[in-house]
Amino acid sequence: MNYSIDKIAENINAKRLGDAEAQISFILTDSRSLCFPEETLFFALRSERNDGHHYIDELYHRGVRNFVVEQLPDAFSSIYKQANFLQVDNSLLALQQLTTWHRSAFTIPIVGITGSNGKTMVKEWLSQLLSFDHNVTRSPKSYNSQIGVPLSVWLLNESSEIGIIEAGISKRGEMEALQKIIQPTIGVLTSLGAAHQENFSSIEEKCKEKLLLFKDTQALVYQMDDAIAAKCIEDFSYDGTLLGWSEKNKDVALFVEKISKDTTTSTIEYCWQTATKGKFTLPFIDDASIQNCITCAAISLYLGMKPETLAERMPMLEPVAMRLEVKEGQHGCTLINDSYNSDINSLDIALDFMNRRPDQQKRARTLILSDILQSGQTEKQLYCDVAELVQKRGIKKFIGIGSALMRQQEAFDGVEERYFFENVADFINSKVFNSLADEVILLKGARSFGFDQLTELLVKKVHETVLEVNLNAVVDNLNWYRSFLKPETKLVCMIKADAYGAGAVEIAKTLEEHRVDYLAVAVADEGATLRRNGIKSNIMIMNPEMSSFKTLFDYELEPEIYSFRLLDALIKAAEKEGITGYPVHIKFDTGMHRLGFNPRTDIAQLIEKLRHQNALIPRSVFSHFVGSDNNDFDSFSAEQFKLFDEGSKQLQSAFSHRILRHIDNSAGIEHFPERQLDMCRLGLGLYGINPRNNEIINNVSTLKTTILQMRNVPKGETVGYSRRGVIEKDSVIAAIPIGYADGLNRKLGNRNCYCLVNGQKADYVGNICMDVALIDVTGIDCKEGDSVEIFGDNLPVTILSNVLETIPYEVLTTVSNRVKRVYFQD
Ligand SMILES: *Cc1c(COP(=O)(O)O)cnc(C)c1O
């Protein structure tokens, strides 16, 4: 669908400057996702941390001609001659207004989904159930925010027959805006869960806000057995049809009579509208999936699906994997594996993700794609669209797998290299497969095509022990700490020690996307590695060595200065290179007595030296708390702060430019938000551990391995070196490929700690070896090849650090380099 720029200007009440003709099909809010410049309308949005207006110049040069702005760029009519600027008071409101208007052109059923858990799952499964006979348009991934919802609604087009849109909120007042944009005709409330409440005083309050989505819907599907939901709905004077489902109450729209579970499937027997009996089987056994499927069943039945049809389709549901995984591949390849349901919107997101990955060697991009199932479009049109996207996103090599792609190969004539295969087996036996090397490969295939097997063959088989790093959790932790800060407070993210073990390059890339102000590493080489991998953010070097000045200057790394010796040497080195105004960060010692100037006795001389040179310029001044994690040290922290406050003010008063002051670390941000000054330094908290109570905020890293071998060991035998592991009863012992050389501390052995095998605790028995450890799996249902969690999502790293009488920092940073880091994003 497209609209003329005139029509759009009129609809968002904009003042139009420029008179070029334009037809708009795409809207863009993030300059990095640009794909079709000529037909794109860019909305310059302002947020607390960023301003879309800064990207206008770049986008203009990349071919974008249409912009919605709050403020016109300087001299726009002479610089951006061919552009149209639509000036409005608030770009976000304009975006919402435009999509609200777009939405009102449709009279089709629109399902609006909200809730705390399961929104995306319900959206995907409902779409799978309905796509057999309807053209369904749904939100991509979990686009459910104030910006994501308008972008989702924009996807509705002439051929849409049903829309499914997800809505998520984080504070009061947001749902009203989303309701206007979505205008759902059918409402769905998924599980409320106990997710933490951020800006709400209680779950009830949050639930009430969520219900606002449903105010004009004809019907509302929800689970009645959830007492809070039921109560809130009762209080919410609702005019439409209530479609509750329950396991307890017969007198409801959908009464769930019986749930029986097998090893891999569950069967639900139900009664619809107290009249029609039915039954279906689904390929899942966990409670969350069962609940979400029942919710989908209620909506489908309401939309008129016959119980027999439902029973046919339910067993075919595909699991919703929302991960985009990055793995190291064979022959110098990087693999990006997207097992998310295949459709063109998620393909676009995956291609965009691929293009944003750091890549030092600038390798060519390859896409391996299976046929796209259930698209609702004609085959020809679908693959023309896919081919266009593939070219726009810079794919050099395209490999299509499946009979539909075989039929539609002509559409891909414009791609440099292209190959088509009937199935995965044909591809694996081909020359094309064997010649994959030094490329970045995106694998996107429907499960039924056997892409799992393909991935298996392409990933580099190294050590079977991996550290999985959840990049979304990093962002969630970042936002959790940001919530303590004023919008204008700057943030340094500490990614020293390879980002506390998580891998500095990928973490830096993620943080850069979320616009943190500074990244900080310990030594210059770490900074140089980041630069070589394309990191452009400001980088602070906490412990610069005297021998690394050249690296600092070459890579624009900003050193911390903690002594006169370092200061003098750096001034000299900079002067020799003819450098002026090089930014440095001054460290005060206020109590740690580790590194730093004494803010009382050194300050006069420090000011004197800094003022009598122009090679360096103090960009910031900081100090570090000794014990912000512990209330016992509160009075000492107060002393430290006072000393810092006085010294840093004195330094500032000697200069006319602004010198940023900072002292709070992770614990400080939470405990002393009033001491946030101009900037804070976030470390451990970013990686999910709250240093104040050792609790996990959002877990980032999971160290995993697999069972190599299992054996029965009779009572009285011993296992491992030095016969330390005495077996006291007949036992089953498993060997796992992780040892102290991987960072598994020897002190955990001899039953001092445990790992998890299929969710159950298995003690380490005997001494931990260099590359292998032995665990007791007696009574645990497991087999060779099963996964073992050393620490992570289900076993907090702090359990290990407590046993080791150390801090989680040490456990995280000692996971050795030979353990592969695997990154994923939901
Ligand atoms: C490591 C470090 C931090 C971060 O500390 P956390 O306790 O991990 O938040 C802050 N400032 C300095 C100077 C550091 O070296």
TrEMBL record:
GO molecular function: acid-amino acid ligase activity; alanine racemase activity; ATP binding; pyridoxal phosphate binding
Keywords from the named record: ATP-binding, Isomerase, Ligase, Nucleotide-binding, Pyridoxal phosphate
Residues the record lists as binding substrate: R594, M770
Keyword hit for Cytoplasm: no
Coiled coil: none
Domain Alanine racemase C-terminal: 700-824
CDD domains assigned: PLPDE_III_AR
Residues annotated as the enzyme's active site: K496 (proton acceptor), Y721 (proton acceptor)
GO biological process: D-alanine biosynthetic process
Uppermost EC category: isomerase
Cofactor(s) recorded in Swiss-Prot or TrEMBL: pyridoxal 5'-phosphate
InterPro entries: Ala_racemase (IPR000821), Ala_racemase/Decarboxylase_C (IPR009006), Ala_racemase_C (IPR011079), Ala_racemase_N (IPR001608), Mur-like_cat_sf (IPR036565), Mur_ligase_C_dom_sf (IPR036615), Mur_ligase_cen (IPR013221), MurCDEF_CellWall_CoF430Synth (IPR051046)
Family, per entry: Belongs to the alanine racemase family.
NCBIfam families: alr, PRK11930.1
Functional summary from the UniProt entry: Catalyzes the interconversion of L-alanine and D-alanine. May also act on other amino acids.
Protein name: Alanine racemase
Species of provenance: Prevotella disiens
